Amino acid sequence: PASAGPARRAPPCSSPERAIPQETMLRRLCCSSSWGALNAVETAAVAQLCASHRRLHRCGGLAGIADEEASAACAEVLKDIDKAARAFCLEVAPRSYRASFSANYRALFPDNGRLYRVDVLETSLDRHSAIWVNGEKFELSPEALEHAEALQRAWIELGTLLDRWQAAQQLQQQQQDATGLFAVPFLASADSSAPAPPVPAASVAAQSASRAELLAALKALDIAWAKFECSYITELIAIEGQARQLVVRAMSCDSNLRAMHRHASAGELRAVERELVQLLGHMNSVANFKCKGRDDLGHDILESARRVLRRCDEARARSGRSDALTGAARDAAYVLAADVVSSYEALRSYLRSVGKCIERVDPHLCNNSGLVARLVDWEQSWEIGARYVLETPLLEALCDLVSQIKAAQAVAPQLEGMFEDCDVELFMVLPRVIMLFFAAAPTAPRAELVHSLLPHRFRPSTPSSAPGVPPSAAAAATALSPELRALSEQFEQALESLAQAASPSSPSRDAAWRLFVERAVFGTSSEADDAYRRLPPAAVQVFEDLMRELEKWSLELQRHCPQDWNQCSAVLVQCVTGRSRKRASPTFQV
User: Fold this and answer.
1) What is the pTM of this model?
2) Which of 94, 339, 429, 584 has the least CB density, counted as fewest CB within 10 Å?
3) How far apart, in Å, do the first and last CA atoms of the chain sit?
4) Quick check: 375 and 288 in contact, CB under 8 A?
5) Mean pLDDT of the chain
């Protein structure tokens, strides 16, 4: 029976301390919760649910749930379903399984309430779509797919009942409007525009969704939702755990490596460290979306970097003895090798820190900014190490060239400022200077750098069989192309001509070399022109011819393989300035 007085909204029945409506108590005593008509609170809740359900349909329904507007409309429907269930005082389907969720999901589902979420419903709709994590394909189990289909059936059934209930309400409103019109005498007339007779009450009742049907639909939806949520989130936690295994394995390998340092042999340590480097490469290929994601940077790069560091330390300790790595050359080699080792140690430090909060690691590893930053640093440093540290001839060529640039800075101090400021003009001067140094000594170690940038300008020479020459060195020997040989000969002629012209009585190749360096640095600026003012026109012409030829070669050096040239120029700037690559921020970020 309806209570007297105005209808009041019944409080939710989930809390035992809240009052239970008398009608609900009577229904429970009679062992039935479905008899009778909807009370005012229930009617209002169902009406609100119907309104939000219509808005979702106008946004495209579940088919358009990926759209922001449709997603917001769906969230309103789920909120109103929960309100309707509370209005009907329906018990919540058991959700004790949430206690076994991981910390991340317990934050999303903090209690055993309904807590309907749009993403769970969307997943049940896309139940046949694969889940891709870190390049691996995962699929839900047959049991989860069965629960997803059951949830969709319950959703469709509830939607059908809501449409019926809404249609019945509209018919009832038409009946009330028509009844009111016929009850007024002056509105009744024989005019053809008179209103239609009232809709029979039996027709309205037949079309409307009964209270029992609404209760059953809401209950079935909640049970189906709980079953799918349990299966889906449980499997998602397992998938995420598997996706994190790459980080976990790397952490375990790093821990083993630290523990083995006390008692293991060098061979055992090398094997474990090689495994760790392989894991880091795999992690880089999965997570490093900012670079190439290389996984082919091997342990030999790290070993070669450590050998170079030991060699630099030994050279520094015996500073008076002869060694290829001395002064600026030693410092250049040290900078590159130290970058390789420090980027590796930075990654190991990350693994130790993240082990304390592994649950915070996003299973999609590319979403972890701290990890990505360290992997970017690691790949860039090791890629340079693979080219300039692992290959001894190229390392010696780079060190030789750095020594020459340092000497040139003493002749033209402005060159030092260009390197410090990374001036745009530097990258016009640098290739010209490199080709000048090469032309001056085409058989010096620096020639290997030009060979790496212009391999088509060199050709293999006949391997030497002379005693004392290592087979590897003999096989790697190269010969200049006729064009490069002509450049070297042109340089010698120009140098000799300039030395004679500058001081006929006592030719000085050093003074002529100084003019070459200044002109290579200043180009055609007035600063360089002052150096040639005292030269005869014939000598200037010879010199200008050589500089034009050098300019042509400098352009080819930059354009043959721009990617290699950009890396080479960046490495040269790094070595000349002595600045190590920027390490990852000391503030820990997952």
Assistant:
1) 0.77
2) 94
3) 61
4) yes
5) 84
